[in-house]
Sequence to fold (336 residues):
Amino acid sequence: MDEQLKTELRKQGIVATTLQELYNWGRKNSLWPLNFGLACCAIEMIAASMARYDMARFGAEVFRPSPRQADLMIVAGTVTKKMAPQVVRLYNQMAEPKYVISMGACAISGGPFKQGYNVLKGIDRYIPVDVYIPGCPPRPEALIDALMALQKLIDHQPLTGADRPRHLRADAPSEFIVPGFGAHDLEPSQNPEVWNAPLVNISLAGTDDAGKH
Amino acid sequence: MTNSPYFPVLVLLAAGVGFAIAPLALAWIWAWKFSPRKPGPSKNAIYECGLESAGDAWIQFHPGYYLYAIIFLVFDVEAVFLLPFAVAFTGLTFAAGMAMLVFLLLLVEGLVWAYQKQVLVWS
Fold:
């Protein structure tokens, strides 16, 4: 059924839908975030869930204290190297399908602490991130915007076919490497399946696999 | 069968059981059709708060804890039994009164013992 016919039917008060649309509609409106904050961004996350900004409007007010019941991990704050294994393990313990919002400059890249010896330069080195929100910290509106972007992403995920999302593919991993504490850094310092160092030497463009996901 | 007065109850029971089982069955069929199972060591771990569990849950409590247990028993159990005893006091027989007295003495003995052990001394 093409879109035109669908909108035409909707004008007449007849709603035509597919199983996939119904499934995604239910999923995107019941994202339960993990009750998990790392630094100051978590305060903005709390504000977003309270009455003034009211994330409940998007079905995402039920912050679950257990990863078993959560769909969405909001990495809210600076990820220190001491904390990184716990963040990755919590992500691993979440049930599929699971999504990650990288909230704030620190969770994206290390932010103002990027030069710090103890700060992880972005959580996307270990787990796949779906939405990034810049800001230091991002305002609650930005978090709600990220949530809506994620809802749009979920809405377009196909149930079958080659481009179906990770959680529907049997070969795609559900658990990622939990880094350990090495002598000088986390080991491994990044998960090559998820993240590779960005290309620096432009003359190598296209001839190596750096920067590819 | 439809004339039986219990027939509506049977229908309601079937509807109630169906209401409970249908969503679970639907979710199970959906998962079997579309979502592959993805277990893993972290996901199957018993402790779920990011940290790996260390040590054993079968630890021993310090023996000193028995003092608190005894004092709790003396005061708490006493209060539970004393209130109905006081309410029904005028209607009790002599034997019942004596039985209650023995019970009280047993508890008071525990209190005396604790007093002698200087458990009640605030230091």
Notes: Residues 32-148+171-204 of chain A form a domain with the Rossmann fold fold (CATH 3.40.50.12280). The first strand of chain A starts at residue 72 and ends at 76. Chain A has a mean pLDDT of 89. Chain A has one domain: 32-148+171-204.
